[in-house]
Amino acid sequence: MEKEQNLSRAIARIIDMYLYSQDETENEQIQALGDEVFEWIEDIVVLKENSPSCGSLKIYNGEFIGEKIEGMGVTSALLKRNGLRVISEEQFAETFF
User: Fold this and answer.
1) pTM beyond 0.70, yes or no
2) Per residue in 48-78, pLDDT tens?
3) How many domains are contained in the chain?
4) Residues 6+ apart with CB under 8 A from 76
5) Which of 12, 13, 58, 88 is the most exposed place for a label (fewest CB within 10 A)?
6) Backbone angles phi, psi at 35, to 5 degrees
7) Do residues 82 and 88 touch, judged by C-beta distance below 8 A?
8) Which domain holds residue 82?
9) What is the dihedral of CA 87, 47, 74, 35, to 10 degrees?
10) What residues have CB less than 8 Å from 54, skipping those under 6 apart?
11) Cβ contacts of residue 18 below 8 Å, gap of 6+?
12) CA gap 90, 88 in Å, rounded
């Protein structure tokens, strides 16, 4: 387990748009959550930009130094791989307001 900013969690990394954890139980939980999400999403999803989970254009690099890189977060990648349109809250505001 890794302790970062008073939070204990297994170390997890994004590889080829998939999230892998050192904790097998977490991997099972991630997969179960992914399966559940598709039961209630229609075709477009608005997620928080820059998040390692939800970013659709940029994400934090995972080194806890505030650096952003181009890429998709784990949740965004999962949703996109399954045919959903993923946009950020910024893209939503520009498109719909």
Assistant:
1) no
2) 998 888 899 998 887 778 899 998 888 888 8
3) 1
4) 45, 47, 53, 54, 55, 56, 86
5) 13
6) -65, -40
7) no
8) 2-96
9) -100
10) 47, 48, 73, 75, 76
11) 74, 77
12) 5
